[in-house]
Specification:
By secondary structure, the chain is α+β, with helices and mostly antiparallel strands. It has helices at 11-19, 31-45, 70-75, 88-93, 99-108, 111-120, 141-153, 207-212, 233-239, 275-291, 306-314, 322-330, 334-343, 346-350, 352-360, 415-437; strands at 22-27, 57-62, 83-84, 125-127, 132-135, 157-159, 163-168, 171-176, 179-183, 187-190, 217-223, 227-228, 243-252, 258-267, 271-273, 294-299, 362-366, 368-369, 377-382, 399-401. A 7-stranded antiparallel beta sheet has the order 17-16-13-14-15-12-18. β1, α2 (31-45) and β2 form a beta-alpha-beta unit. α2 packs across α16, α5 crosses α16 (415-437) and α11 (306-314) packs antiparallel against α15 (352-360). It is elongated, with a radius of gyration of 25 Å. Bound molecules: flavin-adenine dinucleotide (FAD). Residues 27-33, 62-65, 68, 70-72, 74-75, 80-81, 163-164, 191-193, 196-197, 201-202, 205-206, 376-377, 403-404, 414, 416-417, 420 line the site of flavin-adenine dinucleotide.
Length: 439
């Protein structure tokens, strides 16, 4: 990412801005695009920004879908996790090796600012027991409704069923119900989302037109996703859909550093998914890519030491079956016992030392990430080296990118939305800078 002065906007763009009302086009009406639209439109109507150039600017949002914010609304279905309350250092670390690129924008619009912003829309938030931040009513719809109302009041135009196809020269090409249209703009924000849940609009089709313009895009990959294990038919029939509660997953990172995460996850028809798996998904995906599989070790009885487990397994069980012994003495539920049977040989399961060791470190081998369309989010996207610090494409002056389509990933916990909002705002500020240079 360029950190010095911005590349200047193209000459033909410059002349058009002098002669007509300037047009800012935002493509993609998810959280990132809407935040970019808000940042530009608020500056227009606010003296506080003291941006004299903004008096004659029209902001328009274009989206391929019949309505905006569909993934945002889906995110609200299971309880909208807007952001996280942990200290900013820990928060930033969630973005892994992309944190350097996001640090600035999250410092100016991070978790605290996001909560204040939501409050101003009439949406109070609270911190849950995990530190995650939710709207008090847990929903996304009231927030989106209030936000769209504010944007419309500020003069932002909305153009639905407009699918961006790429460029024709400098003009933007859209497929619309009335046929293909081309639109000229003085500044453009692309906020087209990642590559998961295509039916909600973000299908990753933007990759090709950007690559054709010489923009470096890292391949889109599933993030916060499930993984295939390949259960036996017996295990699948008995346990698919059940949650494995309170286990610790141990995983050796590439440099050998051990990682341990406590949590829970769900057995699927063919593997595993859920918050603990999502938290490790970037590491698991990379390990599978490099070694063809990823093995994590599950502690099925985190509260008990290996010695104690050994004693309990060895304890005489009389006429009780081994399963009911493990249930009553070790406290393992049927799913944990089923997992032991699934992952151990019959001999290992009957052998006390091997069984006790497996209760504390059961190897679970993952063979493949689930397809990207099923993932909560995607990794990969427009590489930061292709952008300047205002998120403007170096190769395409006047064109900005924001949100999940940028090359970062983060676990669930509110980190995804927070970075989408922050980068949308950053791109909006970049647009304002860009327009100011060509008053
Ligand atoms: C089930 C689920 C639950 C989630 N829960 C949470 C959560 O609780 N907390 C959290 O932080 N994150 C959550 N997320 C992730 C979060 O919703 C996304 O990271 C976020 O919506 C991405 O925002 P965005 O603006 O970058 O892209 P999107 O929200 O994907 O919006 C992109 C927009 O661009 C439009 N578009 C795409 N291509 C074109 C085109 N060619 N032409 C025109 N328009 C186009 C799409 O129609 C869409 O409206 C969840 C995701 C899912 C799937």
């Amino acid at each position: 990412m360029q950190t010095g002065a911005q590349t200047s906007i193209k000459t033909n763009v410059k002349t058009s801005v002098k002669t007509a009302k300037r047009k800012v086009v935002i493509i993609g009406g998810g959280p990132a695009g809407l935040m970019a639209a808000e940042t530009v439109s608020q500056a227009i109507s606010s003296d506080a920004m003291q941006l004299t150039v903004q008096t004659d600017v029209q902001v328009d949002v274009y989206d391929a879908m019949p309505s905006v914010g569909r993934k945002f609304l889906l995110a609200g279905k299971g309880g909208m996790n807007l952001t996280h309350s942990e200290p900013s250092d820990a928060f930033l670390a969630r973005y892994g090796d992309r944190q350097q690129y996001l640090a600035g924008m999250l410092a100016s619009f991070g978790a605290a600012e996001l909560r204040v912003w939501a409050e101003a829309l009439g949406v109070t938030t609270f911190i849950g027991s995990s530190g995650r931040v939710f709207p008090t009513d847990m929903k996304a719809a009231p927030l989106l409704r209030a936000w769209l109302h504010r944007l419309r009041t500020a003069g932002v135009g909305f153009h639905m069923r407009h699918r961006w196809l790429g460029w024709d020269g400098d003009a933007l090409r859209f497929s619309t119900p009335e046929g293909e249209q081309t639109i000229q703009a003085d500044a453009v924000v692309l906020a087209l989302g990642g590559g998961s849940w295509a039916r909600l609009g973000s299908d990753g089709a933007w990759v090709a037109p950007l690559q054709q313009r010489g923009i470096d895009v890292a391949p889109l990959q599933p993030a916060n996703c499930g993984f295939d294990v390949g259960w036996s038919e017996h295990f699948r029939q008995r346990f698919a859909g059940q949650a494995l509660i309170t286990v610790v997953a141990h995983f050796a990172q590439d440099d050998g550093t051990p990682l341990a995460r406590q949590g829970q996850f769900v057995m699927t028809e063919g593997g595993v998914e859920g918050s603990l798996i999502y938290a490790l998904s970037a590491l698991l995906r990379k390990r599978i890519a490099s070694q063809g599989k990823a093995v994590m070790y599950l502690d099925l009885a985190p509260g008990k030491s290996a010695e104690r487990i050994m004693q309990e397994v060895m304890h005489p069980r009389g006429s009780r079956s081994l399963s009911s012994h493990l249930q009553s003495k070790v406290g393992l539920d049927p799913l944990k016992i089923g997992l032991l049977r699934e992952c151990l040989t019959a001999e290992q399961f009957q052998q006390p030392a091997a069984l006790a060791a497996a209760i504390k470190a059961l190897p679970l081998t993952l063979h493949a990430a689930r397809p990207i369309d099923e993932a909560i989010s995607s990794a990969g996207g427009v590489m930061f080296d292709a952008l300047n610090d205002k998120l403007m494409l170096q190769n395409l002056p006047g064109v900005f990118c924001a949100g999940e389509m940028l090359d970062w990933e983060a676990p669930t916990g509110g980190y995804l939305l927070t970075a989408c909002f922050a980068s949308g705002r950053q791109a909006g500020l970049g647009v304002l800078d860009c327009l100011a240079k060509f008053t």
